[in-house]
Amino acid sequence: MAVFLLAAVMISGCVGSKIPSEQILRIAPRQAAAMQANSTGDGTLGTSHRFGGPLILMENFESFPALDRSAVMMARGNVLTPSTRWYWEGAPASIATVSIASSLQANREYTLVWPARNRQEHQAVLTGRVERFEVREHESEMVISLRMALWTERGKVLLLTRSVDVHEPLSTMTPQAIADAASKGMASAAQSVGEWLKTEGLQAIAVQH
Q1: How would you classify the pairing of strands 124-136 and 62-63?
Q2: Neighbour tally for 194: CB within 10 Å
Q3: Tell me: the pLDDT tens digits for 39-62?
Q4: Is the per-residue pLDDT at 3 higher than 80?
Q5: Per residue in 69-86, pLDDT tens?
Q6: Average pLDDT score over residue span 185-194
Q7: The whole model's pTM is what?
Q8: What is the pLDDT of residues 116-128, one digit of tens each?
Q9: Distance of CA 101 to CAs 139, 182, 203, 205, Å?
Q10: Which of 82, 163, 165, 198: disulfide with 71, CB 3.0–4.6 Å?
Q11: Cis omega before residue 115 (within 30°)?
């Protein structure tokens, strides 16, 4: 009889307890909207005015299979655990693609086209892979790692590669703090990619032409 009473108490406790709801974290780089409006004239992502310099096609980013999900990855040491409460708006590769494209389309030293149109005449192709997009719990930081590659037209010859690593501190371990840190981290990563493309990237393209 006591066993049945205990089971009834446990069941009633589970039914009465509030189940934590899922929370969606949005990546919103501070300068993305302003830069995109300046680059396209109307703020529409995926369009681009023809600026000076070479025309560069940007392909959608890839990621390791384990990162191809929207759950926020919590890291302790070398162990990653997907959160069951916190989720990004999309997979990290999609987030990085949109963030980087919206930033690079503002540069007037070249014309970046995204989504890529393979039949369009171009001088180079930009690709990227997300290798880390995680919350380091013990270190209280958001870590973003990208591996960029610049190719000749149609991806025939590899010109350059560049690794971008960003460590953004977390004020607290809350979803808002994580979203803020990720937003700052993506903005910083986009700036690094842009500076690399304007300097080493344009020089490598010029040598090929």
Answers
A1: parallel
A2: 19
A3: 333 334 444 566 678 999 999 999
A4: no
A5: 999 999 999 999 999 999
A6: 96
A7: 0.82
A8: 876 788 999 999 9
A9: 30, 17, 20, 19
A10: 82
A11: yes
Measured between alpha carbons, how far is residue 95 from residues 143, 154, 160 in Å? 14, 24, 23
* Joined tokens for residue 168: 């953004």
Q: Identify residue 133 by its one-letter amino acid code.
A: F
Tokens of 153: 């037209």
Nearest residue to 103 via CA among 185, 26, 38: 38
Distance CA(54)–CA(120), nearest Å, equals 13
Q: Measuring CA to CA, which residue among 195, 201, 206 is closest to residue 107?
A: 195
Q: Which residues of 44-68 are buried (b: 16+ CB within 10 A; e: fewer)?
A: ebeebeebebbbbbbbebbbeeebe
Q: Which two tokens stand for residue 202?
A: 């344009």
